[in-house]
Amino acid sequence: MTATDATEPGTEPADDTSTDVAPAHRHPKAHQRAGRLGRWIDSRTGIARVGRGALNKVFPNHWSFLLGEIALYSFVVLLLTGIYLTLFFDADSTGMTTYDGSYGPMQGVQVSEAYNSALEISFDVKGGLLVRQIHHWAALVFVGAIVLHLCRVFFTGAFRRPRELNWVVGCTLFMLAVVNGFAGYSLLDDQLSGTGLRIGYSVLISIPVIGPWLGSLIFGGNFPGDDVIARLYPIHILVVPLLIIAMLTVHLTVLIRHKHTHFPGKGARDDNVVGERLWPTYVFKAGALFFCVFGALALLGGIAQINPVWLYGPFRAEDVSSASQPDWY
Asked: What CATH number does the domain located at 68-77+130-260+275-303 have?
């Protein structure tokens, strides 16, 4: 026997003597016009059906399914901080200038415009060092979350048919994240990033047949080249981010098309998903997770120093720093 409510949702009980009028009915003509506009848009686009389907999509409750969202939110933080940094960074490694900024030990030293702008962001732009460190930490978390997400997919068998396309997209996202991390890490023209570029150039030219051509294309000649930073810059801020956005769009589209996988449990079957609907519960959980990720990255950027380029010094092709090592990925 199914229990039913005595009243329709949103209506008042029969014995209610209140004379208050609902706000929606105080201006019936405006309400009717809005309704007609909504029906007209829906008749042309079918957005109501699509919207209802999206809002009713069920997301599993298990914490491991949040790894993909952490990667997504880290990417959003990367975009926001990257836009800010772009306003102040000068991707010129050939033009030399004498540093006269706030960092005393480097004053009077001949440095490239790229390295000079990195120091200015760190010491002279308000909030520049914080934003730069948030950006770097977000890149590390972005790659790490993708790796853990791929591990979850692999070890639970969620890459099998019909989700093999999303597995390929996820692996592609990982490779794009690593490439963009290396490109951004190399832009500052400090001694550590220059050593990384030297290693990258050696790996690149070792590729059979096309390696030397690729090295010449990216570096503008033999290492160290004159144009490598100027060519890596648009790759880092435009080309790869657009590819990542495209891959994320494909990934989310396929995810909506297919149901989530889930772990065995009460009520869980192959043809259903046990969890919470997108609206309203999951939307608020996802929003809270975004602010938690942003807050954690801001905390790391504020208290955990990372990539102190002022200690490494400007890049000199004849020098190699003894403790050179890349980011963990």
From this structure: 1.20.810.10
